[in-house]
Amino acid sequence: MESCSLYAILCLPAAGVVINGLFGVRFPRKVVASIALLSVGIPLLLALRMASILLYPPCGQGIMVDTLYRWLSGRTFHIDIGFLLDPLSIVMVLVVLIIGFIIHCYSVSYMRNDPGFRRFFIYLNLFIFFMLILVVSDNLVGLFVGWEGVGLCSYLLIGFWYEKKSAADAGRKAFIVNRIGDCGFIIGILLITLTFRTVNFQELNMILTNAHTVSTATLSLIAFLLFIGAMGKSAQFPLHVWLPDAMEGPTPVSALIHAATMVNAGVYFMCRIFPLLEQATYILPFIAGIGLLTAVYAALSALGQHDIKKILAYSTISQIGFMFMAVGSGMYIAGVFHLVTHGFFKGLLFLGAGAVMHALNGELDIHNMGGLRAMLPRVSAAFFLGLLALGGIFPLSGFFSKDAILWGAFERYGAFYWAAGVLAALLTVLYCGKLFGIAFLGHTRFRGPIHKPDSLITIPLLTLAFFTVSLGGLGLPMFTKHSIFSRLINPSFVSHDTATVILTPNSYLLEIAMTACVLVIVLGTLMIALRVSTTKRDRLADFERTHPTVVRLMFTGFRMDDIYELLWVTPFTFICRQCDRIIDHRVIDGAVNGLAKLASTTGIFAAALQTGYVRYYAVSIVVGMCILVGTTYAVMW
Amino acid sequence: MIEHILFWLLAFLLIMSALGVIVMTSTVNSVMCLLVAMLALAGLYVILGTHVVALFQIIIYVGAVLVLFLFVIMLLNLKERAQILTLRPFTCGAGICILGLVSLIAWLFRYAATNIPLIQDTLAVTPVQNIQELALELFGKHLLVFELTSVLLLVAAVGAVLITKK
Amino acid sequence: MGMYHFLSVGIILFSIGLVGFLIRNNVIVLLLSVELMLNAVNLIFVVFSRYLHGGSAGQIYVFIIMTIAAAEVAVGLAIIVSLYRRFKTLDAQKINLLKG
Predict the structure, then answer these.
(1) What domains lie within chain C, and their CATH numbers?
(2) Across the interface, do B34 and C32 touch by the CB < 8 Å criterion?
(3) What are the residue boundaries of the structural domains of chain B, listed by start?
(4) Chain C residues lying within 8 Å of A612, measured CB to CB
(5) CA–CA distance, A252 with C77 (Å, rounded to integer)
(6) Is the domain defined by B1-85 classed in CATH 1.20.120.1200?
(7) For residue C25, what is the nearest residue in chain A, using CA coordinates?
(8) pLDDT in tens, A338-359
């Protein structure tokens, strides 16, 4: 029964794609939208039911494994199409489907006037399908299929308005940078196949936890390569450059793909192969370092942006950096928890930004907005809740997850690392405050009519706001490693000894003290940020004017695009141009033209034989006859 | 005895008239020389004992082909004097080729003759095969060739008409 | 008279025909030279049929060759007539429209 539900969950979005793709042109918009919503809504109900069966006692804490089909089989090695549903997968499936459904509802209203309405829902359904395959697959290759599929859908959706050159370029950039990560991923899969003779997650984890003879160096190399893949997909430094540009796509796309689901695939993947990471000794610090670096870098860049969506994009990069910090500190459960909460509040923020844009007729620059709190009260309340969660303020969900991460970082890597993490959190709250203060508070700078959003936009916002607030409850009771969430998801990380930590009163008190400290600092920074951006705006402007280079650096993301342009794009285009000039024009064209010239020259020479004189031909006949008779003579001798 | 004399006479006539064909300046003169050559050749056939072939030689070649030649020459009503010799390198090359060809063929004949047994070595004036046996072989073993030749004649007739049609 | 006498007559006749073909300009004389060559071949066929074991196959081939020669002369003269109409000359050196 359960496997039936699983297949239904997977097939229904695909069916939605097929139906809308083949027949959608003839249906009116309402029908297209209902098909799309049903193909996500029914799987959502099925997934909730399956979650209740698998996660809760008495028959709970279960893991379901199902193998559909043997795809490749060799003598010692085979690849199956199979599915693994342990608590981690179920949580991811629920995240994808809940947020996906909410965003589908939102898009019905948001994309109402767009001529590509049907195409949009086809791509969205396709994305849901591939994302589900990614999270329920039980081996690396199936996961990679989903990985590639979501990359494709991301490209299609970023470049949705493909007539705009910037959108098409952004889609291409996303796909190419993703591909660079995928190179590492594929080589990693190959190495795993060579070393372990299997790609199945459960088999891999079993081999790794029991005795094996694979050297640490090999394991580190494999983990490094797979992490490169995760870096590309989850937009970590230095493969993050595609995410800010990906804001060219429609806002629901940014909310679904680039905040809640696809960019989390890297984190999910790292959690899936955590035994490998545990044993590759140099990789975990590396992951944590990259995560930290990205978090700080992205938060700084977010401070310098004007575009509301770009601020949220850099904020996403920064928060995923936090998730990788968690993974790097061995706090996988905290990382996954932050993934879940981040999905909800970042989705909320993006949808709110979309509502704001919709109301202000496409205005993106926050310096042209202001006083939105009065004009759009519900939207700005939801937005504020999202920002509080982002900043990690108690009692919203972001607080629980972020503090779990910081505490884990302190435990593993010491005070310096923790302080850097706190710095990142401070920067986060700074840009949150700046954003809210400039865009929503104060008096309005916007000229033009305001379009009040309809219920299909506000209801999803409020739903997400509800989740943002309530999911924090899953993190209780905190300060132990036995929160509700960790108990839910623990079976996925059985070999990881989260449950056997001995709590001394000292560590308990230290944790409370540090958390309280962070909370106070964060709240204070938020107040300061809000005050500065509302009342002391002229001081802000003065500061920006006197430090133009710093501002410029933060605005362009520390000029990463320019660096890449110099480092890779220019040499590559140079080589291509040279190849075109030399190889294409001279060598290949020369060869082909030369061949033609050879044929024509040979023809000219051969044509000289055709003089047109009869007696000339007679001579050639006689010559031929001589040769023939002479050959007979020679043969007979 | 008489065959020997006749042979030498006819052979001489044949070769002289053949040379005349290619040397004469007037076209009609060439055709007349060819006539004499045909007749001499018919005589040679008689000496060889194949009277049937000699008959056909005279009927077909002299009676049809040469007459056709004369018809066409008179039809064209030529007035000019033909030229004999032509470009020098051409002639030399032609000469060398012919020398080589002829010597090769002669050698081949010698080889055939020494290694293939002959019926008899001397002449006989009596006909070797009478016409009845010849007819039996022509319409028996070589019937297909015969039929195909008749088709070819038809094709030639149609073709000739077509080519000269205005 | 041995076989060689007749054979040498045949060879000489053939070469005379060949030489004539190669050195004369007039197309009618070219045709006549071709006739000479054909007759030489006829002679050699008859000689071989007369002197070697093979039945009367040689004479039958001679009949066929004569027929074909007659047909060929007919078509050749038709071509010559057309040529004359077109070029107003019978000089082979002046006709080279088939020049490639």
Answers:
(1) 3-99 (1.10.287.3510)
(2) yes
(3) 1-85, 86-117, 128-166
(4) 95-100
(5) 92
(6) yes
(7) A615
(8) 888 888 889 899 988 888 888 8
